[in-house]
Amino acid sequence: MQSTQAGTNAFYLANQARWESNARSYPRRIPIAIRKASGIHVTDVEGNLHYDCLAGAGTLALGHNHPAVIEAIKETLDENYPLHTLDLTTPIKDEFVEELFSSLPPHFASRAKIQFCGPSGADAVEAALKLVKTSTGNRSLFSFHGGYHGMTHGALSLTGNKGPKENVPGLMGDVHFLPYPYSYRCPFGLGGELGSEVGSRYIQRTLDDPENGIVSPAGMILEVVQGEGGAVPAPDAWLRDLRTLTHDRGIPLIIDEVQTGFGRTGKWFAFEHAGIVPDVLILSKAIGGSLPLSVVVYDQALDDWSPGAHSGTFRGNQMAMAAGIATMRTIRSERLDNHAALMGQRFMDQLSNIQSHSFSIGDVRGRGLMIGVEIVDTSRPADLLGSYPAHPDLAHSIQRECMKRHLIVELGGRHGSVVRFLPPLIITPEQVDEVCARFAEAVEAAEKSLPVYS
Ligand SMILES: Cc1ncc(COP(=O)(O)O)c(C=O)c1O
């Protein structure tokens, strides 16, 4: 057998496949070994320059190795600041909390408490669950079809995608899934405003039905724009309805902004589009400025848990806090939230144009720089709403064609048939145009490879 040439992508991937667990995921679809990275670009070990529209699954708000982030990390090292402090406080932590709280709507900030969690989004979800269960004394939770909250036991229990759940018996019980307003595949077969209005009415009736089978809820968790669920934004009116429904019934509303947090949707926090505030806010990804960090910020009225109720060793990552401060300040000073809205619109315009020349794009949607293109099978009949069945094979083929053109995109949504764009917020207009041009070519090539053409 011939061995793969050392130093190539294939060489590293072969080693990875030999050593790493079968649970590894991204390298199966993005088969490169990364040598260096800057801004929206990554360079693989063979010297190919790729446009990275995955950006650490939305983590890299400022792109790879932004000078402000690198500077903050270097300063932490040069000044001999502690790198690890459990949850003991430090000047960096103090500054981080002040910076974060000054980004929150003032009436939320004035009542806010923060818990530093283990460094993953999923651990912050676990903390939020324990917080609301402790405070309410209740055990059941509402979550949503298509929602994604992470891979730990509790977080996975709240996640819609059944794939990773099927082989894990004994997940947390008492989780009740409600319909999310997904216009293209409206759970009520209605779509548009009517679909989401019926959705909030259905939720109201469910909450108020003494025979709904659900014991008193500890909370309701949702994403304002479902990320892994396929870049599905919830309408503002629906969010306001849910805020009122939960408030009036004393149900803590947990908003998971792990992916949307910090400017990505065109506002600092995605919930601000609807003018609401949550009771509990979950943050990770962008807040660590590329490094691992996660927190839960919540209304002090819920602060009923005991000392050590969510302790853990890695909750004081000073470099992540320093990088997070640099990220927040850069987003603020460069108005990257506004920029994300503008660039998002530029993307949407071009993607809609690509849709008009394609026969396999069913829907183009998103908010700011969280965008999804749903790939469908138009050779099969549409449903009553006019929506076609998902076409996961074609979506994979488009992703492969994108890789051939050095464009990194990820798939998500139902059956993995939504191509997702999550570029860094610093993307320039020229880069948006280049990404869309490469995507258009990839769609055309993938469509031409369908049997209907041969
Ligand atoms: C909305 C949301 N919540 C939670 C998580 C879990 O975060 P982590 O992967 O850091 O555990 C993710 C990850 O993508 C996410 O998008």
TrEMBL record:
InterPro entries: Aminotrans_3, Aminotrans_3_PPA_site, Dat, PyrdxlP-dep_Trfase, PyrdxlP-dep_Trfase_major, PyrdxlP-dep_Trfase_small. Pathway: Amine and polyamine biosynthesis; ectoine biosynthesis; L-ectoine from L-aspartate 4-semialdehyde: step 1/3. It comes from Marininema halotolerans. Belongs to the class-III pyridoxal-phosphate-dependent aminotransferase family. One of its GO terms (molecular function) is pyridoxal phosphate binding. It comes from the Bacteria. PANTHER family: DIAMINOBUTYRATE--2-OXOGLUTARATE AMINOTRANSFERASE. This is Diaminobutyrate--2-oxoglutarate transaminase.
